[in-house]
Design goal:
The chain has 92 residues and is mainly α. The protein is built from 3 helices and no strands.
Length: 92
């Protein structure tokens, strides 16, 4: 059963997922956008992903976002993060 949405998740599982998504976005931006630091678009995506993870109603009990019944990402961010994960996944 989901937790209340007003609480910010910061448990070890959420922190690990935040680190993983940040690393994937960093790989994508370096290789696709040719930036050493995150470009504005990738920085925005990273902040959005961290916000969504922090507010996930399942908290530490969450599964993979791709298997989630809620899909809390806005469509443009969902498309962007899928592209990043498809590209960066093999490099991880």
């Amino acid at each position: 059963m989901p937790k209340q949405m007003d609480k910010h998740n910061n448990g070890p599982k959420i922190q690990k997922e935040m680190e993983t998504v940040a690393q994937m976005i960093k790989i994508y931006c370096r290789r696709k956008h040719h930036h050493h630091e995150l470009c504005g678009q990738c920085q925005d995506l990273k902040q959005y992903a961290h916000k969504r993870l922090g507010l996930c109603p399942f908290g530490e009990d969450k599964g993979a976002c791709s298997n989630c019944s809620i899909h809390c990402y806005q469509p443009q961010y969902r498309t962007a993060i899928k592209k990043v994960m498809r590209y960066s996944g093999p490099w991880m």
